[in-house]
Design brief:
The complex is a heterodimer. Chain A is of the alpha/beta class. Chain A has a single domain, classed as Pyruvate-ferredoxin Oxidoreductase, domain 3. In chain A, about 35% of the residues lie in helices and about 25% in strands. Chain A has a 7-stranded mixed β-sheet with strand order 2-3-1-4-5-6-7, with helices on both faces. In chain A, helix 3 crosses helix 4. In chain A, about 50% of the residues are buried. Chain B is α/β, with parallel strands linked by helices. Chain B has 2 domains: about 180 residues, 3-Layer(aba) Sandwich (Rossmann fold); about 110 residues, Rossmann fold. In chain B, helix 4 packs parallel to helix 6. The longest helix of chain B is centred in the middle third of the chain and has 21 residues. The radius of gyration of chain B is 21 Å and the shape is globular. Chain B starts with a strand and ends with a helix. Classes of the chains: A alpha/beta, B alpha/beta. Chains A and B meet through helix 1 and strand 2 of A and helix 9, strand 8 and helix 12 of B.
Chain lengths: ~180, ~350
């Protein structure tokens, strides 16, 4: 199994962290992983994206133009990456700030209101984990227990008390993702 | 047992340097390799192994600090990206001329000039053909994964001391910035004074002992005939490198009709192109030079006897293609496909290039 994912949004939304958590979770289940960020001028106060690949085999290119899944967090990224999803692939997006909704009928499109749910929970910072939960519901490529292990591995000890909150946010996302 | 980590290529260079017993890192920040010195500063290895980490006032100062440390038989290194490596060229030719070992990491970005900060491979000529003045070469290693960023640090120092010659790790922004699984090496202690005397006592400036001649480290020789004798010696050394330490990898070459020749991140992208080609029934393989100097000429010549053509894929306007053409020597077509200036080629573009430039040509 190989899953090629692009996560794209604004800098500061936690795009790179989402990718890192996925990559760590992949390692926890003995997969090969690659995490390739955009590091160019665009990350200095603009759009940010990261390619994450999880695979049971040796990973070829860390740089891709077509993806099994796109996780989209703003309009610019929707404009750029909707067309890059492989036929039959998956697009997960947060509708906050999206004015032109995705229109392809040859891919599976899901909405997860991460921004709204995070605001309602009084913690806007967990929005990316809610979106990640939405993705993991429709594509359970990593087990929740491996996400938890991955968080424990990637976060310094002093942040470990935040792990339950993150897992809860993922579960919220799992419960609220809907087919668009 | 060695640890498995998820790390960026640049971070791994720093970690590998500490673990392989490096004595000193001297550098100056530049994107896309600043994480090397950042990681070293965070790790504070001077508290752990005694390794010196110093941010110099410039790239030129840094390479000359390496020159000084190397002449004492120490394991010294520096790193930079393309514009900074250009500044280091004088130091590098002096190190090569004084036959001193050191490790230089170049995480290449698009040029010329200050260029862009995105990945490129447009410094192949500079890395493999000398770079500075005079008839010399660096031994050049081209990692294609984060694991190789780890492995080539210790290997680079080994080769540098084996040949008393500067070694370069020629990476690019993709390999430096991406994270992959990596198995870090075990710790090797730094050399003691006794180790240096035993390993490099014939040349190192480690304090004159009674009963032995003083050591002089220089790249200056006023007698041209003596300079020519020295140059013969250097050339003989390069021939030994070619014979004993040329490295490459072949993937899917056994049944291949066509061969991609690519190194570093381009070699990774080509592996995706190979999957796409083989889904369409086109049998393609990959020859990946691991040492760019010395260049894997003989395996290319062997492949040239049974394949229909080669396509080199580089993030440059076509540099390594010249070495491939020299090796293949006109027996089958050799063409180049490249994106450059910081643009990364896509797997599909490479497939199209193979079809239009080699198969249908």
């Amino acid at each position: 199994m190989t899953e090629e994912i692009i996560i794209a949004g604004f800098g500061g939304q936690g795009v790179l962290s989402m990718g890192k958590i996925l990559a760590y979770s992949g390692i926890m289940q003995d997969q090969e992983v690659a995490w390739m960020p955009s590091y160019g001028p665009e990350m200095r106060g603009g759009t940010a994206n990261v390619t994450v690949i999880l695979s049971d085999e040796r990973i070829s290119s860390p740089v891709l133009t077509r993806y099994d899944t796109a996780i989209i967090l703003n309009q610019q990224s929707m404009d750029k990456f909707e067309a890059a999803v492989k036929r039959g692939g998956t697009l997960v997006y947060d509708p906050n700030g999206i004015v032109r909704v995705p229109s392809r009928d040859d891919i599976n499109i899901y909405r997860i209101e991460g921004t709204r749910l995070a605001a309602e929970a009084g913690n806007p910072k967990i929005f990316n984990m809610i979106v990640l939960g939405g993705f993991l519901k429709v594509k359970p490529i990593v087990l929740l227990e491996n996400v938890e292990k991955g968080l424990a591995k990637s976060l310094p000890q002093r942040h470990h008390h935040l792990i339950p909150m993150n897992i809860e946010a993922i579960q919220t996302g799992m419960n609220h993702v809907e087919k668009a | 047992m060695a640890e498995i980590k998820l790390m960026k290529g640049n971070e791994v260079i720093a970690e590998a340097a500490i673990r392989c017993g490096c004595d000193g890192y001297f550098g100056y920040p530049i994107t896309p390799q600043s994480e090397i010195m950042e990681t070293l500063m965070l790790r504070e290895p001077w508290k752990e192994t005694g390794m010196v980490v110093l941010q110099a006032e410039s790239e030129i100062a840094a390479i000359n600090m390496v020159y000084g440390a190397a002449s004492c038989g120490k394991k010294a290194m520096t790193s930079s990206s393309s514009p900074g490596i250009s500044l280091k060229q004088e130091g590098l030719t002096y190190l090569a001329g004084a036959e001193l070992p050191c490790l230089v990491v170049d995480v290449v970005r698009g040029g010329p000039g200050l260029g862009t900060i995105q990945p490129a491979q447009s410094d192949y000529f500079q890395a493999t053909k000398g770079g500075g003045h005079g008839d010399y070469h660096l031994l050049v290693l081209a990692p294609a994964s984060v694991q190789e960023m780890n492995d080539f640090v210790a290997l680079g120092f080994d080769l540098a001391f084996k040949y008393r010659n500067p070694v370069m790790i020629l990476a690019d922004g993709v390999i430096g910035q991406m994270m992959e699984k990596v198995q870090l090496s075990d710790y090797v202690p730094r050399w003691s004074d006794a180790d240096i005397e035993r390993l490099s006592g014939e040349w190192a400036l480690n304090g004159k002992k009674s009963g032995r001649e003083r050591h002089i480290s220089t790249s200056l020789e006023l007698d041209s005939y003596k300079q020519e004798v020295f140059n013969h010696k250097l050339q003989a050394k390069y021939r030994r490198m070619e014979e004993h330490d040329t490295r490459h990898e072949e993937l899917y070459c056994d049944d291949a009709d066509y061969i991609f020749v690519a190194y570093g991140s381009s070699a990774r992208i080509c592996q995706k192109s190979i999957q796409l080609c083989r889904e369409q029934g086109i049998k393609v393989g990959l020859l990946r030079p691991i040492t760019l100097y010395p260049f894997p000429r003989l395996p290319l010549q062997a492949l040239a006897k049974r394949v229909k053509g080669f396509l080199t894929v580089e993030m440059s306007a076509g540099q390594m293609v010249e070495d491939v053409r020299l090796a293949v020597n006109g027996t089958v077509p050799v063409e180049h496909f490249g994106r450059y200036g910081g643009v990364i080629p896509t797997p599909d573009e490479i497939v199209d290039a193979l079809k239009t430039q080699i198969i249908r040509a």
